Amino acid sequence: MKLLTDLWRELHRLFRGATDEHERFRRRLATLILATALIDAIGTALMWMLEHDETRSDIHSVFESFFWVTTQLLTVSSQFPNPLTTGGRIVDIFLEVWAITVVATVAATFAAFLQKK
Asked: In angstroms, rounded to a whole number, what is the distance separating the alpha carbons of residues 23 and 87?
């Protein structure tokens, strides 16, 4: 428990800075997190609608769809089978492009913040 408390204090200390750069940094990260959560929710709904009726698909419930979409966003091409429908494949491509874009944007956000420091 002490380890978690210490980690929380360090993170809080890092992000509580009062400069404009700190505020922009926090806003950019918060925007990326919220946008990715929205993409995750939309992707979950789309993949469930597109894939749940396919007999060979591994997506048969909303939870399986959520798990598949979240894994795609976090790993950029996981070990799960590819979608079977054309619409599912299009959603998969979009998710992979989104994940790569978010990783690059987070890296650039950290670089810009640290450069100004």
From this structure: 39
